[in-house]
Design brief:
two-stranded antiparallel sheet, about 160 residues, alpha+beta
Amino acid sequence: MGLYTLQDMNDTESMALLKRLIQSPANPCFVCGPTNPHGLHVHLERVDGGIEGRFTPGPWQQGWQGVIHGGILAALLDEAMAYTLFMTGSMAVTVRMELRYRRAARAGDELRVNARIVRDSSRLVDVEGRILRDSVVLVEAAGRFMKRGPITPGAVLDATRDAAP
């Protein structure tokens, strides 16, 4: 049996494979990995042509007194923006990310993160993302991602092994 990619499968098969990869105990991701003991355990999904997820930060994620660390919020946005490519069957890495912090996020806030592709070329993809509390924008992000190829059944685990020291 030859190597197959998400593009070779129907949408139901593709989504089933992606869900297995995301929910795998071998997924070490800090943001979405289900078994990472220090992770955020955020569930991201496709919604209206983009990505959306929810997250409620805890007091252990504060940077300054009462304010959630900007690095936690940056990681959340980076992951949501990367998912826009992941959910279309492409492996990608962050090339550049710019953030604008507008308002503070606090422990216990119910946050919503969303992201969407704004420009897609053969190799580079520009993505925008936001973190909101209710309808108030707390953080805006613009990112550029480089495609590394299609997702295959072993691609995510292979990429994880490649990144290991």
